[in-house]
UniProtKB/TrEMBL annotation:
<dbReference type="GO" id="GO:0046872">
    <property type="term" value="F:metal ion binding"/>
</dbReference>
<dbReference type="InterPro" id="IPR009056">
    <property type="entry name" value="Cyt_c-like_dom"/>
</dbReference>
<keyword id="KW-0349">Heme</keyword>
<dbReference type="GO" id="GO:0020037">
    <property type="term" value="F:heme binding"/>
</dbReference>
<protein>
    <submittedName>
        <fullName>Cytochrome C</fullName>
    </submittedName>
</protein>
<keyword id="KW-0479">Metal-binding</keyword>
<dbReference type="GO" id="GO:0009055">
    <property type="term" value="F:electron transfer activity"/>
</dbReference>
<keyword id="KW-0472">Membrane</keyword>
<keyword id="KW-1133">Transmembrane helix</keyword>
<dbReference type="InterPro" id="IPR036909">
    <property type="entry name" value="Cyt_c-like_dom_sf"/>
</dbReference>
<feature type="transmembrane region" description="Helical">
    <location>
        <begin position="12"/>
        <end position="36"/>
    </location>
</feature>
<dbReference type="Pfam" id="PF00034">
    <property type="entry name" value="Cytochrom_C"/>
</dbReference>
<keyword id="KW-0812">Transmembrane</keyword>
<feature type="domain" description="Cytochrome c">
    <location>
        <begin position="48"/>
        <end position="137"/>
    </location>
</feature>
<keyword id="KW-0408">Iron</keyword>
Length: 150
């Protein structure tokens, strides 16, 4: 080689760069794990009702029309904050009844509005669904969704 980079300098840059970025990768991975543990999932709040509600949500594929925390289909409203939208943080009983009534009374058959099908969901499962929605609305999501309309 004439001038500039020697073989050993190139090798040093290669190994040095590799090690440098590997260290950054490991540090960021460790940081992410710690951050997720501390800041997001409210594990203590996962009651049997929340678990069952999630199972009901999955069994009926509500996600085929709805999003939850932005994941899912964009046909129907975001449900990650449906608890807040129904005023759950101010009046929990009214919100619970409101959400259950909504699900029970579908379809609305209001012309020009998108329709939600009727689902055969019993009382106890409806309560579990609401427990699930409430739980989702209380975990830390870095303020997603950004507004109450979802
Ligand atoms: C075929 C599509 C579809 C499926 C599947 C569906 N929904 Fe809906 N859902 C809708 C539509 C459309 C609306 C909004 C209708 C309107 O505003 O008139 C809605 C609205 C709602 C609302 C009220 C949201 C609000 O902000 O007022 C709730 C709660 C809800 N759905 C729960 C569920 C649950 C629980 C399931 C599963 C058991 C489900 N949906 C499955 C279409 C669907």
């Amino acid at each position: 080689m004439s001038e500039g980079l020697t073989k050993s300098a190139a090798r040093n840059i290669f190994f040095g760069g590799t090690i440098f970025f590997l260290v950054i990768l490991v540090a960021l991975t460790v940081h992410s794990y710690g951050y997720i543990e501390k800041n997001s999932t409210d594990v203590a709040g996962i009651t049997p009702g929340v678990e069952q509600g999630k199972a009901v949500w999955e069994r009926h594929s509500c996600i085929n029309c709805h999003t939850i925390l932005g994941e899912g289909a964009y046909y129907a409203p975001e449900l990650g904050n449906v608890w807040a939208r129904y005023g759950g943080f101010e009046d929990a009983d009214t919100a619970r009844d409101g959400i259950k009534d909504w699900i029970r009374s579908q379809p609305t058959e209001v012309e020009g509005r998108r329709q939600m099908p009727h689902f055969e969901i019993n009382e106890q499962e409806l309560d579990a669904l609401v427990d699930f929605f409430k739980w989702v609305n209380t975990i830390k999501t870095q303020n997603w969704p950004p507004n109450v309309a979802g």
